Amino acid sequence: MLDRRLFLLGSAATALVSVACRGQTAPASGSVQVEGLSAPIEIIDDRWGVPHIRAQTKADAFFGQGYVVARDRLFQIDLGHRRELGRMAEAFGPDFAKHDAVARLFHYRGNLNAELARVPDEVRACVAGYVAGINARIAEVEKDPALLPLEYRILGVMPLRWDIRDLVRARGSAIGNADDEIRRAKLASLGLLELDAVVAPLRPAWKLEVPAGLDVSKVSDTDLGVLQIGRLPFGPDTPTRDPDEQLDRSQAGSNAWTVAGSRTATGRPILANDPHLGIGGFGPRHVAHLTAPGLDVIGGGAPGLAGIMQGHTDRFAFGRTNFHIDQQDLFVLELDPNDPERYRHNGGWKRFARFEDRIAVKGGPAETVVLRHAEQGPVVMHDPARGRATVIGSIGMQAGGSGSFAMVAINLSRDWNSLKEAFKLHPSPTNFHYADVEGNHGWQVIGFVPQRKKGDGLMPVPGDGRYDWTGYRDFRALPSEYNPAKGWFASANQNNLPAGWPRDRIPAFSFRDPYRYERVADVLASQPRHSVADSVALQFDTLSTPAKQFLALLPKQPSAGAAAAVRLLAGWDARLDKESGAAALYEIVWRNLSERMLAAIVPERASDLVDEIAPSELLRRAASRPAMVDAALASGWSEAQRLLGPDPAKWRWGKLHQVRIAHPLSSIPAIAAAFPAIEGEGSGGDSYTVMARWLGGGPGWRTGGGASYVQVIDVGDWDKSVMLNLPGQSNDPRSRHYRDQYAPWIKGEMQPMTFSRAAVDAAAATRATLMPKAGGQ
Question: What SS3 state is found at 426?
């Protein structure tokens, strides 16, 4: 277990922080020699903390990106990398060994050299440069411990060196939609399968059926096996470098739109994007600008993943939202009663592939774990006593399933056609938005679609071979649009499959309620001369369609207990502004109504399976239950008084909906002391407003996620583009960029996205040069 002496320091912790805070607090100017460069590179940090990297080769430019992300976010990327590699126990003790075993279960066991050979030489060289840049910064902090981020001194650990092979080895162990499959099977066993639509209505519409051969009476949460292992012992899960960061299913998403020059005030296209990610821990984006001959790209990248995910090159702007492809299935295997290392498959018994891994453990003996893979993928549950095992089949575990090279390939592309080669390296499901200097704009769904022998992926299936995958299709089997006639295109995780899309090619049934998309569409369709400022206003738009629909359900003759709530809400404009008292009341009533509806429609025996209700379902059912609406209004009014005080004139949604950002390991007192929480402001919005600011888990009202990175790109006049990156570029509390974008983000005050050489030079705060170390690269 962790050495608690490191974490329960009193005055000693304070002294450590005091000494550390006298260390480096900002990027240093000057020159430093590093290994891995072919020629000098210049790093100019502007006054918003964005590093602009000027290199002589593309690979060196990505070296610079790796170096600056390690400079600003080393502990963040190191912790995520260590977790993915299954090397937590060697640093933090035996409590982490089981987590390491799960991570290693999802390591690719095929030919790593073949995986690397799939990647074009130039892309691979640039990713190798990124890795070398991270390692160069690690070498600096090893040589000069004063440069170490504070966490390392508090925890008594050192960062790991990186290897490009690790980027194709670690594939991630997220639960994905396996728990959805389990839920549906358990509801089917209760004869209540229709209640699944309460939680997650299928979009497109689809009839749920139990797969032939599946005994739903035997399906249980136990079938999730090691996927239920839970959070890391010392705090919340750390982010991974996967492009599709794992989020609550009901919240995952983003907004993006492109507007043709024919519909903008300037005659140039506009591209806007705000990826919706978790808010409360490490910032999920780090902004950088990479330049070299043949390369000029700026935008937000995922720390630990080479390349820029949202931004623009000198030729085109690009953004992304989550598309929906069901890329994971849960297979149920029958074990051979005479030999539990064999399972039934294709009419016979097949032996598991077994791997023994040795997990180093700090302060104790190494642990050896046995990991099994079946034909379909990693074995997450193996129970000889029941003669049963379960397997996760996932795109991520397929040959070519690593997404570690896709962003670089996109960044190196020059136009719409060359992007199509880059898309072949992109397995994760994404709406890719594009707009270029020639005036074109387009949308392409990218990602890998599993090809199933049979079945729809909505429930567990027998693993005897009938439901196996036969391979996967790439983006060429998915929809796209180029220069749409209406002059704009938007995605917000709604069902955007074209009309008439073949039913046998539906990639998923998990598209979201279309509220955000419908609001975006209404605004864009009504603005024939759309501007950058209009896009910014739309990104911070708080009009709630569910709230508008709820207001139509207000009783005409409310009860005495509900009357005050009806009076306050009746004059409300359905905007979830932070200063709105009616917005606060609405959110409280909405939660109360949801709880009442679930209690009314879900039998007790299924209450643990159906514990949330989709907003469209809630509104549809509430329309025929006026007494329930009245009761929720009355209870909501009383709860609002308890939470916000007796005077409704002083109620504010932002008072409840606070934005607090803390170190993910802040449960450790010394970490909490060294990394002060960023807090003090509230937010508007919720899950269904364009300005998505959804609630965190539990009974509280704190903001749990939303658009922490926001960009609006003026295509061609690049210096007119704007962005925000919550809470700032640096994770170091000694840096002025630790929280400098927190207040602007709350207020919606965008910052310049400086791009041209002149604009970057004018905004320069510091300059540094990285030189190749004498004696070779």
Answer: coil
Q: What is the pLDDT of residue 661?
A: 97
Per-residue confidence band for 238, with pLDDT thresholds at 50, 70 and 90: very low
Using a 10 angstrom Cβ sphere, with 0-12 exposed, 13-18 middle and 19 or more buried, the burial of residue 477 is: middle
pLDDT at 490: 98
Looking at the predicted structure, is the pLDDT value of residue 380 above 70?
A: yes
DSSP symbols for 570-594:
HT--SB--TT-HHHHHHHHHHHHHH
pLDDT value at position 176?
87
* Three-class DSSP category at 417: helix
For 579, phi and psi rounded to 5 degrees? -90, 5
Computed over every residue of the chain, the mean pLDDT equals: 93
CB-based contacts of 541, cutoff 8 Å, min separation 6:
519, 523, 689, 690, 691
Q: Over the stretch 708-742, which tens digit does the pLDDT of each residue have?
A: 999 999 999 999 999 999 999 999 999 999 999 99
DSSP helix/strand/coil, 712:
strand
379 sits in which H/E element:
strand 379-383
Q: How far apart are CA 675 and CA 329, in angstroms?
A: 40
User: Kindly report the CA angle at 169 between 360 and 223, in degrees rounded to 5?
Assistant: 80
Query: What integer is the mean pLDDT of 208-213?
Result: 97
Give the CATH number of the domain where residue 587 resides: 1.10.1400
**43 within domain boundaries:** no
C-alpha span between 390 and 378 (Å, rounded): 9
Residue 125: count of CB within 10 angstroms of its CB: 17
How far is CA 76 from each of CA 15, 362, 742, rounded to the nearest angstrom? 24, 21, 19
CB 89 within 8 Å of CB 360: yes
What Cα–Cα distance (Å) separates residue 570 from each residue in 562, 629, 659? Answer: 12, 14, 28
The yes-or-no verdict on residue 214 having pLDDT over 50 is yes
What is the number of structural domains in the chain? 1
Q: Is there a cis peptide before residue 558, judged by omega within 30 degrees of 0?
A: no
Mean pLDDT over 131-149 rounds to 97
Q: Is residue 15 part of a domain?
A: no
Selection from 252, 198, 219 nearest residue 595 by Cα:
198
Q: What percent helix, strand, coil does the chain show, rounded to 5?
A: 35, 25, 40
Q: Which domain holds residue 630?
A: 555-656
Does residue 561 fall inside a structural domain?
yes
For residue 727, is the peptide bond before it cis, meaning its omega torsion is within 30 degrees of 0?
yes
DSSP H or E segment with residue 759: helix 757-762
Q: Is 621 helix (H, G, I), strand (E, B) or coil?
A: helix
Cα(370)–Cα(358) distance, integer angstroms = 9
Helix boundaries (H) for 307-428: 406-412, 416-422
Task: State yes or no: pLDDT of 252 exceeds 60.
Answer: no
Cβ-in-10-Å burial (0-12, 13-18, 19+) of 731 comes to buried
Residue 277 buriedness (CB in 10 A; 0-12 / 13-18 / 19+): buried
Q: For a pLDDT cut of 70, what percent of the chain falls above it?
A: 94
Q: What is the pLDDT of residues 620-669, one digit of tens each?
A: 999 999 999 999 999 999 999 999 999 999 999 999 999 999 999 999 99
Domain assignment of residue 379, yes or no: no
Residues in the chain: 777
pLDDT tens per residue across span 530-576: 999 999 999 999 999 999 999 999 999 999 999 999 999 999 999 99
Residue with tokens 């749409």: 484
